[in-house]
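hey so i finaly got around to running the thing on Cytochrome P450 from Streptomyces triculaminicus. pasting the sequence first so u can double check i didnt mess up the copy paste, my clipboard has been acting weird all day
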Amino acid sequence: MSVHEPPELFGPEFTRDPYPTYAWLREHSPVHRFTLPQGMPAWLITRHDDVRKWLADPRLAKNLERFLPEEALPSPQLRDVLTRNMLASDPPAHTRLRRLVAKVFTARRVQSLRPRITQVTDEVLDRMGTAGETDLVDTLGALPITIIYELLGVPMRDWETFRKWSVLGSDEQSTGSEEFETATEALKSYTQGLIADKRVAPGEDLLSDLIVTRDNDEGLSDDELVAMVFLLLLGGQETTISLIGATVYHLLRNPDQLDLLRKEPERLPAAIEEVLRYDGPAMNASMRFAVEDIEVEGVAIPAGGVVFLGLGSAGHDPEQVPDAERFDISRSGVKHLAFGHGIHTCIGSALARLEGEIAIGRLLDRYAELRLAVPPEELNWRPGMHFRGPVELPVVYRAKPR
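ok and heres what it spat out for the 3d tokens, dont ask me to read them lol
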């Protein structure tokens, strides 16, 4: 890519491999102005130190309704579902919402899920059998799906309804479509009924605890509870599915690293962290808005300007990570931004890490042979501005002798 050639953001080539474009931007246009599909200008910040600083700077806000024009907002009947959550809120609303969720979504609760996560993983691998070919994104995707639905207390008979919305919600191409609107309305109605049932007969699940938790005698409203369910569905499923898929993909593409991990399985947590840095499931943080005129790297962004913070680009910044383009699970002490930074740091990061570690660990422990079933260039990757990960990952596998 020449100095004078502008990068094509979010096109097919970028979707397959965004990192050469990010490298060009960090060097030549670290605060890059581009145009959103809705026709509005936006700015993409790509250098690690800038991304980290602005993730925590209150001069960038999250409230869509405060800054976006009416035509760019979700439809009025769905707006509460998509905006009344922690991710789309600013203090003091965000502070209250996060404090309420943190009361019940604790580190202890996440760790208590370890036996169940292990059990579900083993059940998934049992269904795979001793040898064959499978799409690991689909197969291992059953793990985070099962765990988040059980955590929320969703009856198994209704999982298909939740899964359909989650797939649409993570597909940025479908947002605003008639199918997306219909699925969202149906899930909103169902979730309202589920909340009403749990108010009468609470269970031992996260949603029941969210219903009864209080902060200074104030709890979550029904609209806030519905919005929280939608947020947890996306955060608890699609990003973890992508993390597991990307981890397997990069290990298979780097057999020396796979061999190292097999020989030294204690490196598994570091391997997950390296995938999060190198090719994490969140390419950009969710959009923010300048609350006043700001300047970043000499570039003026006006009040109300839409800003994207390049989490994926930050992980490849050579000023932060030596030899950043190399996938290396033996790295230590590298601090990535895959889960964000500041008040909006992902509250489910511990669960994603735990599921990733268990899924990859049990997979490698069971199968002596794992290899891609198709050339890497034939794989499809999630399109869009936010999510990153393989759409499918066909592999051939063979179990260890027992």
